[in-house]
Amino acid sequence: MTNAQIFEEYSGKLPENLLEEIKLKVPKRISKDKLKKILDLAVEEYEQSLVEPGEAVGLIAAQSIGEPATQMTLNTKHFSGVAEMNVTLGLPRIIEVVDARKTLSTPSMNIYLKPPYDKASKEEVKNFANRIKETHLNEIATQIDVDLADQKVEITLDMDKIKALELKQTVIKKAIKKQIRGLSEKDIVFEKDKIVLKIPESLSKEQEVDPIFKIKEKIKDVVVGGIHNITQVLPVLENGEYVIKTAGSNLKAVLALDFVDPSRTITNNIFEIYDVLGIEAARQAIFNEIYSLIEQQGLNVDGRHIQLISDAMCVSGKISGITRYGIIKSKSSALSRAAFETPIRHLTEAALSGEVDEFKSVNDRVMVNGILPVGTGLVEISMDLTKLNQGGDANEE
Amino acid sequence: MANLDVSKHFLSFKHEKVGKKELDALIKKYDISVWDLPKILITDPAIKDMGLKPGDVVKIYRKCPYRGPSIYYRVVVRE
Fold it and tell me: What domain range is A182 assigned to?
């Protein structure tokens, strides 16, 4: 039997990372007996360090994260890279993740470019970045004129910019038609570097204020290109390649772009990850997010506590935050739910629907001074009643 | 766009359907019913093309920073 075979034999007993570590640390020409001895000792140590059945792991996780969290800075804003973009960090961000908030205070993305674009120059990357950014009409226009006599709005366009953004006339036309009510296709005419909007008469008679002025204001905010929701872009050089950092997030649309690397591009919006990549990816994202936040603050929390939390948030197949609407709601015991937040509401609801509480959870038992179902309290003795009756006079159990 | 390969993303893990034999062994080992397992929606992007039905169990090959490669099970549910 070779040493490799011995390792193979132990692969079920030890986690693979540990085995790899032992493999690296053991001298190459170790005798089989010694190797076996080392591995046996490792197995013994490993088994002793496992969490015991009945250990209140959730409580330990809560304390282990809660204690350092009290020391975290309440300073929420951090300016990453050049001082143009800010991201929520620290405790407020942890709360955001753990509560599974759907709207974030600072949604952002890190967009990586796919080869060969990853070697692109700064100028090229800037170009890509501008194509991602949501573009409003007033950004590509140099001048907007109103012609009252002919009831026309004339928009003079910056053709260089349009070329750089690779915008097409038809796309702009569609965008205007969609976002401004009352204009039909024939009212929008392109003339060289101008768009001329003819205001239909039906519109002008409706209101007291000349609608032409309203349209002039509205037209500025028409989104003609880029990706919806992405309001700011900033290319940053990281490890020898440009990463586009954004304010605002839209994972699905960004992944679909042809120059984006769909395997590394990431958002800080967990729900978008869930929608696009699924529950397992979302769980991993929650873990990564909390772990890096705690690490950034220079605190030391074992990742296994965070794994437990992220697993708990994802058991139902959907993301549920640690709130009374999330995982607390799925608790079967009404008293446990009442013990968390808004007790009166939970109790009245439970009473109205006639819920039964079996006093099986830790919270319930604490309330009635019972034995907690934790550690040794988890074990119960069960009796085989049929055998008891065979004895004859077992009136009472 | 329609055919975005979800599994290529670095946050995604391999999902695989668990065969009958393996499932029986799992259920027996932990003395549970399939419905006690963590759940995954049938509409989940990671499994929606696998043609699974509710009650099937998927095996997820996670990469854990502590254990190395590790395995997680989820039962497919409808909503």
Answer: 135-225
